[in-house]
Amino acid sequence: ANFSIAKDLTYTIPVLKQAFAVNPNIKTEMLPWSPPAWMKASGTMNGGNFNDTYMPSLAQYFVKAIQAYEAEGIPVYAIAAQNEPENSNGSYPTETFSASEESTFIASDLGPALSSAGLSPKILGYEHNWNDTTYPETLLADSAAAKYIAGISWHCYSGTVPAQTTVHNAYPT
Q: What is the Cα–Cα distance from 35 to 93, expressed in whole angstroms?
């Protein structure tokens, strides 16, 4: 009921509009560093774990955010359920979001909510480091989640590039 992108209207959206004015072909990806504090067991944006009770609410936040950005002229190419889901840090907005939680969220809430709203951004799974191939493989092994996942997104802070090949070879589609 209290969803708003008002804070984004002062900086984020104007900067994105400037970027699109320079190159209208850029792609935007939306992903949270943390869901709202009230959706987390910790009750804070900084660190902690997601309260799975709020998966349907989080999916609606994605729907509303995409709709609001697109109403401002910012097309959303892709989304990810959580930035660095294996990183919980009490010093800044983060959360732990396990592979099974992400898989359930995408299959049962996020994918269906986007579809019901007529939205079709690409969903990128994992969004974390090369040092763990088990997490993305868990997502892709779940056929209910995998049908919504366009690909796996990687960070290069830890691990090595061949991790991408490991996952690709296990799930080439």
A: 9
